[in-house]
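Need a sequence for this fold. Nothing fancy.
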């Protein structure tokens, strides 16, 4: 087997329906378990294990073992892991929600109560990982998914591919001097590839909270620029200079989390969470990010109900082809995140996998609006697309998906129907194309 593709049945159980995302380490698929009908997110390694190699040294399976030690409502749950045809894979709960990164790109910044509520939930998640001796090392808005769990929203910390054991003498899969993480959220000692403890996750939460409140990260730019700023003798930037409504007590907490010397930060992530609760006793720790309307700065009037939906999208214009990620969708259009530009009012062709059955849809769309973050040179743009000629079958499929999500998510769908959809997959693994 050269590679794992959509339509394949993994380990005789997981029918891969559509791609959720790709990276250097592997591909994440939405999959249906053929025996239970339940939907999962399945991450499959990009390359096979060498014959006779010890699977314990495979990063993806070490991620599975780290997640397998943790049971927490704010952490994506692992359900299975293994090796098939020498391809390691990990099965996790399928999250139906939006990323903090996508919400920030669209809105610019959050209400202070929502920003603090999200940070408190991430602190709780990290306290659980640290309690079993595991660092995350890549906490950032792109690795936090906001899902609806009635009657509230819940943050889910994902992507544990950079985890590191805290225990002395534990095996280390990261080479000495290797850089792991995303520069704008990395502590100075992490930027300099020095040894780290949970202080690196504490710093990352401080940087993420700073961004959620202000719309900017403490230090912007590529690695060399961030390294110079984060490791200089200057104090961390003040959140109140950007957003004066922040109370002094909250500013003090964020500044300590962002302290450049590890000894000046909180000793544990629990201490940071406790300090946030003490500084903001009026904040209940809940968020309303998925229920609030999109900022008035985005000039779009919604004709159709929408629902969170994350899937890769190919956009083809008269002058370029770009890749992006859908964040939410309706019968009438989608919200796209992309690092590449689109021109407002231009007509483009979009290729994307439909929810529920994974078939590929192709239709024309109009770029209704584009929202960039000029202060974030390396952040994606939010693009509002309105479908022009989507077929009635495509619109009906999207309408069913949105209705299901509004009734409680895809888990509410009859498992027998899901199993039937899985059995209808083309034996060659090809997905029907809807134009």
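Here you go.
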């Amino acid at each position: 087997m050269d590679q794992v593709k959509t339509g394949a049945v993994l380990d005789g159980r997981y029918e891969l329906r559509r791609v959720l995302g790709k990276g250097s380490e592997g591909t994440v698929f939405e999959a249906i378990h053929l025996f239970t009908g339940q939907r999962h997110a399945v991450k499959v390694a990009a390359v096979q294990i060498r014959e006779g190699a010890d699977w314990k040294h495979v990063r993806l399976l070490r991620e599975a073992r780290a997640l397998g030690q943790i049971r927490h409502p704010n952490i994506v749950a692992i359900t299975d892991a293994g090796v098939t045809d020498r391809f390691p894979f990990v099965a996790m709960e399928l999250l139906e929600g939006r990323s903090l990164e996508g919400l920030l790109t669209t809105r610019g910044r959050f209400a202070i109560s929502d920003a603090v509520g999200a940070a408190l939930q991430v602190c709780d998640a990290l306290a659980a990982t640290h309690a079993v001796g595991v660092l995350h090392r890549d906490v950032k808005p792109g690795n936090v998914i906001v899902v609806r769990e009635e009657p509230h929203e819940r943050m889910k910390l994902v992507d544990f591919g950079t985890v590191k054991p805290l225990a002395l003498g534990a095996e280390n899969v990261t080479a000495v001097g290797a850089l792991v993480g995303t520069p704008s959220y990395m502590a100075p000692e992490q930027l300099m590839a020095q040894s780290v403890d949970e202080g690196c996750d504490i710093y990352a939460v401080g940087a993420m909270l700073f961004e959620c409140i202000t719309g900017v990260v403490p230090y912007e730019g590529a690695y060399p620029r961030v390294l110079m700023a984060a490791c200089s003798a200057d104090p961390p930037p003040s959140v109140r200079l950007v957003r004066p409504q922040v109370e002094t007590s909250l500013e003090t907490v964020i500044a300590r989390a962002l302290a450049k010397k590890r000894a000046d930060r909180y000793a544990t992530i629990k201490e940071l969470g406790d300090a946030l609760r003490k500084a903001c006793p009026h904040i209940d720790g809940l968020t309303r990010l998925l229920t609030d309307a999109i900022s008035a700065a985005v000039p779009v009037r919604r004709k159709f109900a929408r629902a969170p939906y994350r899937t890769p999208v190919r956009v083809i214009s008269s002058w370029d082809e770009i890749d992006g990620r859908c964040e939410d969708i309706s019968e009438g259009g989608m919200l796209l995140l992309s690092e590449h530009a689109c021109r407002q009012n231009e007509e483009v062709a979009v290729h994307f996998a439909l929810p529920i059955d994974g078939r590929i849809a192709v239709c024309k769309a109009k770029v209704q609006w584009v929202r960039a973050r000029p202060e974030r040179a390396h952040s994606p743009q939010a693009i509002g697309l309105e479908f022009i000629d989507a077929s009635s079958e495509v619109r009906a499929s999207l309408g069913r998906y949105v209705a299901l999500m509004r009734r409680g998510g895809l888990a509410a769908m009859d498992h027998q129907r899901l199993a039937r959809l899985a059995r209808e997959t083309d034996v060659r693994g090809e997905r029907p194309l809807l134009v």
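For context: Residues 97-279 form a domain with the Transferase(Phosphotransferase); domain 1 fold (CATH 1.10.510.10).
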